């Protein structure tokens, strides 16, 4: 009887020990699961690193058509550029026109529009000409470099005369629609100085879409082979004014200069580049030489009559 009670006590003790020993084995399993969940939560709570790589937002047209004399705009949008630099390049001569907000060309018609804190980098070309047609690239200085190509087409709003001599320009405009070059019809400048001509177009209701300058049969613009040529055209309420500057005048710069608006009759002047000679000598030197001859002939005639 005693042995039976002892046996039951032993079984009870062994059962309790089993329960006590079983708990530790179960506990790590729970903790392991809980630890895994916690690790998962901690891992999930780590901030996800967003890519800061620039990217083009191709939402604007990449084939742009403009009319001669108007403003052409090529709209490039760059998302999260960071500290990267956005530039515009003209493809035909690989000329960097703008970089960031700065312009790197002597042609003042080019500029970049970038509203603060925006993705917009718009290349603007004022008074666009047919020579401006071609491919332009919006670039970001990543490694490798990112670029997006735009194609600019330029259409004429009015036919341009094939020849530029004043007598050969046959276009039908109202006589009131007339260009005028400020100053005399003959302009005298010294060699090495600057030729400055100002053309005024008095058409107020419809300003000319373009004003071009010609020296004989050559177009005078920023791309002229001669170089040293600048143009500035301003449209106001009173009309349109176009200024032509030719630096370091040469003897070969002499000749006829014509201002041709797209919607008015042209105007011309004759430019004389002098090699150290005073303009008055050229304008009036001939008459000074004729006066003594006339006086001599008159005196001879008077003397002959007196001797008769």
Automatic annotation (TrEMBL):
It comes from the Eukaryota. Residues 1-22 form the signal peptide. Keywords: Signal. SUPFAM superfamilies: Immunoglobulin. GO terms for cellular component: neuron projection membrane. Residues 54-149, 166-270 form the Ig-like domain. Pfam families: Ig_3 (PF13927), V-set (PF07686). One of its GO terms (biological process) is synapse organization. Transmembrane segments: none annotated. PANTHER family: DEFECTIVE PROBOSCIS EXTENSION RESPONSE 7, ISOFORM F, DEFECTIVE PROBOSCIS EXTENSION RESPONSE DPR -RELATED. This is Basement membrane-specific heparan sulfate proteoglycan core protein isoform X2. The lineage of its organism: Eukaryota, Metazoa, Ecdysozoa, Arthropoda, Hexapoda. The gene is 410439.
């Amino acid at each position: 009887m005693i042995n039976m009670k002892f046996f039951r006590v032993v079984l009870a003790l062994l059962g309790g020990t089993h329960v006590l020993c079983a708990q530790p084995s179960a506990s790590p399993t729970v903790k392991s699961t809980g630890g895994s969940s916690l690790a998962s939560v901690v891992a999930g709570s780590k901030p996800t690193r967003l890519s800061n790589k620039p990217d083009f937002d191709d939402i604007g047209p990449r084939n742009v058509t403009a009319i001669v004399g108007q403003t052409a705009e090529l709209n490039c949008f760059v998302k999260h550029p960071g500290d990267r630099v956005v530039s515009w390049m003209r493809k035909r001569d690989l000329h960097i026109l703008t970089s960031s907000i700065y312009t790197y060309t002597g042609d003042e018609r080019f500029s970049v529009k970038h509203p603060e804190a925006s993705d917009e980098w718009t290349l603007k070309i004022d008074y666009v000409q047919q020579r401006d047609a071609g491919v332009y690239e919006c670039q970001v200085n990543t490694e490798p470099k990112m670029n997006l190509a735009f194609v600019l087409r330029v259409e004429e709003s009015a036919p341009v005369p094939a020849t530029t001599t004043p007598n050969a320009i046959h276009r039908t405009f109202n006589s009131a629609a007339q260009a005028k070059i400020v100053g005399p019809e003959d302009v005298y400048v010294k060699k090495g100085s600057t030729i400055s001509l100002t053309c005024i177009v008095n058409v107020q209701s419809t300003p000319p879409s373009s004003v071009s300058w010609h020296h004989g049969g050559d177009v005078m613009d920023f791309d002229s082979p001669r170089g040293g040529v600048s143009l500035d055209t301003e449209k106001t309420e009173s009309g349109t004014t176009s200024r032509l500057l030719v630096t370091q005048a040469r003897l070969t710069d002499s000749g006829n200069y014509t201002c041709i608006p797209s919607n008015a009759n042209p105007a011309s002047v004759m430019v004389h580049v002098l090699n150290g000679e005073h303009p008055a000598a050229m304008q009036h030197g001939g008459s000074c030489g004729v006066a003594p001859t006339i006086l001599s002939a008159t005196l001879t005639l008077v003397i002959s009559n007196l001797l008769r």
